[in-house]
Amino acid sequence: MVNDILIEAKDLSVYFPVTKGIIRQRRIAEIKAVDAVSFFIRRGETLGLVGESGCGKTTLGRTLMQLIRPSSGEVFFEGENLCRLKEDELRPIRQRMQIIFQDPFDSLDPRMSAGEIVAEPLRVHQKIKGKRLREQVGELFKVVGLDPAMSGRYPHQFSGGQRQRLGIARAIAIRPKFIVCDEPISALDVSIQAQIINLLEDLQTEFNLTYLFIAHDLSVVRHISHRVAVMYLGKIVEIADRDALYRSAKHPYTIALLSAVPIPDPYVESTRERIILKGEPPSPMALPPGCNFHPRCPIGVEVCQREIPLLREVEENHWVACHLV
Amino acid sequence: MSLLQVKNLKTYFYTDDGVLKAVDEISYNLREGETLGLVGESGCGKSVSALSLLRLIPYPPGRIMGGEAIFEGKDLLKISEEEIRHIRGNKIAMVFQEPMTSLNPVLTIGFQIGEALELHRGFDRKGARQEVIRLLRMVGIPDAERRIDDYPHQFSGGMRQRVMIAMALSCNPKLLIADEPTTAVDVTIQAQLLEVIKELTSRLGTAVILITHNLGVVARYVNRMAVMYAGRIVEIGPSKEIYRQPRHPYTIGLLASVPRLDQPRKARLIPIEGQPPDLIHLPPGCPFVPRCIHRMDRCFTERPELREVGPDHRIACWVDIHSV
């Protein structure tokens, strides 16, 4: 698995137009949700993607899957450039990539039974039916830790954790290679989160899955990821192997983010120095010149206000976009 | 000195499926100027118990079934509607999770905070305006003289929550109830807001009930904590003591299940198995029994009451973890 790249983004940008007027819509601005982002994920690997709300992490995940078409740039999946393909050409490829959503309350059809929810991708994509379909659905229930006897129930009859298990069963039903996990545990209770993380890890080993794990909880991301990318206002500001990133973060934003995470231990907390960032992220419609982070940066200098820092490899496999590193 | 004494508070909801015991006989004391954390997962009753203190439970379906809440010598659950209205927002103030739902979108921030000042503190229009500007500055809103005339939607989520904090502290309350005040904002903003709350309440001597599910937030900002499960307090005590030596199997499980940035990465997380409790069909004994790894026969039939296991440290559990 060492250098076997499954999916790669090159210079990927997604701009959303901001329009004014109802009948004649004039384009008055653009939101750079994802701005010239490049990275890759190796086969069998989990890349953690962290950042605060509105930084573009969800858009990036959906653009990899071509659920959102990029404004420019390319996505290579198993060597194939997905951005060149038409919708019908994408369909067979979509079987190899799936997504797990944050809120299993919203993403499951309330009028379908649990069994039907899990069976649907098998019916549609692989034309499986009858007894074989029932057997496979039962098997999937067991794999994700649900009792197959519950397949006749409806989503509202399940708890949040069980619903997320259903979402996972549906995602792995057609044996995808790549799964975008978009904040899969944020809506769950603390005592249930660890169950779902363990399940995702087990499934990764069993089916050799590759994950993009999008989250804002940095402790969870450290636990599950092999490598971690940090996003701020549409750009990746740092990407590195997990241990390198958590042991020696280099970008001032990553450092502040790590420092803002409260540790569940009053003794540790009472002696810990924290960096409290000033201000708030600027509007993505009116980005500052130079480095996006400079208005809040505790160490910024003059050049940061003028020049956009590029992502550079400062140590082996450790990339940082900052003039001062 | 005790500011608030809650005794056997019970709040039930009458639903089509049956009686939901949201808060089932909880008791605790809050000292003046102290910060108490109410910790637990969704549905454990932490918010409902706090709303019950101010009698903000919608009826039907909700109903405060019994107990007392003695605040400055008066029982909040028994005083007249008129009296409780004087306490709400004045002596006891609240900050909620989503500020947009508690701010009126068609009125300026200045009007909304000023209104309470005129009502509760007897300011005239002009004096109130000056006081609002002072309050907005105090919670760290830049350019307060100008922003006082802005509407809620013109503020970001973090700034809106600062407005809520300013509004809550405007009448110098004795008690601030903060219900998941930072759950809807990002980590870097969360840190800012909690520092503001901590700094201001300690300066003003305000007691705080901080309701949260985030164990890290509790560790940093709370002196004492109560862990709730299925409408009951299962462990209560000084937070340093509880984090160092949790004694209830639920608290132990909760603390063990979260990955920690300050510790080496574990190969595998240790979850609490099973599902959250169904509050309508609770088992007769301990509500945690289906998920407990230390359970005994007695736990299925007899409900454990809080008992002392250390200085000011109590748990509701039949098992003594140290002998297991």
Question: Can you walk through the features of this model?
Answer:
The complex is a heterodimer of chains A (325) and B (324). Chain A is of the alpha/beta class. Chain A has a single domain (5-20, 29-96, 176-320), classed as Rossmann fold, CATH 3.40.50.300. Chain A contains eleven helices and twelve strands. Chain A has helices at residues 57-64, 87-94, 104-107, 114-126, 130-143, 160-172, 190-207, 218-224, 242-247, 252-260, 266-271, and strands at 5-20, 26-42, 46-50, 72-77, 80-81, 97-100, 178-182, 210-215, 227-232, 235-241, 312-315, 318-320. In chain B, the strands form two sheets. Chain B has an eight-stranded mixed beta sheet, sandwiched between helices. Chain B has twelve helices and twelve strands. The mean pLDDT of chain B is 92. The two termini of chain B are 37 Å apart. Chain B has a domain at 2-91 and 181-188 and 213-323: P-loop containing nucleotide triphosphate hydrolases (Rossmann fold, 3-Layer(aba) Sandwich). The A-B interface holds A 52-53, 159-162, 189-195, 197-198, 201, 216, 218-220, 222-223, 242, 246, 256-258, 260-269, 274, 276-277, 280 and B 41-42, 156, 158-159, 186-192, 195, 213-220, 239-240, 243-244, 253-255, 257-262, 265-266, 268-273, 275-276, 291.
So how many helices of chain A?
11
Number of helices of chain B: 12
CATH class placement of the domain at 2-91 and 181-188 and 213-323 in chain B: Alpha Beta
Span between N and C termini of chain A? 30 Å
CATH superfamily of the domain at 2-91 and 181-188 and 213-323 in chain B: P-loop containing nucleotide triphosphate hydrolases
Number of strands of chain A: 12
Which homologous superfamily in CATH is the superfamily of chain A? P-loop containing nucleotide triphosphate hydrolases
Which consecutive residue ranges of chain A, at least 5 long each, have pLDDT under 50?
Answer: none
**DSSP strand tally of chain B:** 12
Instruction: List the secondary-structure elements of chain A in sequence, H or E.
Output: EEEHEEHEHHHHEHEHEEHHHEE
